[in-house]
Amino acid sequence: MDVVREGHWRSQRHAKRLNQRRSAFTLLELVLALAVIAAVLGLAWPVLMRFSAEQALKENVEAVRARLARTRLSAMNSGLSYQFRFEPNGRRCLVLPNERPSGSGDATGTASTGESEHPAELIELTEGLRFLTAPPGPAAQSQAATTERLPEDWLTAFGAPASLAEVAWATPILFLPDGTADDGSLVVVDKDGRYQELTVRGLTATVSVASIQRERRR
Fold this sequence. Notes:
It is built from three helices and eleven strands. By secondary structure, it is an alpha+beta fold.
């Protein structure tokens, strides 16, 4: 009987040692797996960040492209010329008619404040993105963008905030009721120098978007 008990006790000790070894081996596997995952993430993280930044740029550029296309339709449907303006080195762009609302204003021709049949639309890029008049680089930095301010009464006539009168806007890209437009271009750039250029072809008012480029920095 004692022999049986001793054998049983030895079997338990042996099983316990095996379990301990098995637990230690499992922990080592876990550490190695975590190390591999950390190494993979370290390699993949820059790729994921670049992909995320490029997606944000593409989505914002597509929103601007779509608004330019709708501006052409607004001009054709309303019979009014429309202007598309953007804020160089800023995040805002503005769409509004190029003529004052009919029947608005006093005897001096000053437009009245209130709702318009054709309200202005303000669009803002995601933080970290901005508009430029040309692709970023030394050449663009050496050329100052031509800007102008819009009268406060003009803005409020189309329901735009009066504070936009303080913004220095780029010269407008005009869309005409006959479906044509001014030739024009603008650039959306992110903080890392990635950019896409949008070009408006005057004869058809179609908008093309270039592929993502990267500013060459020394």
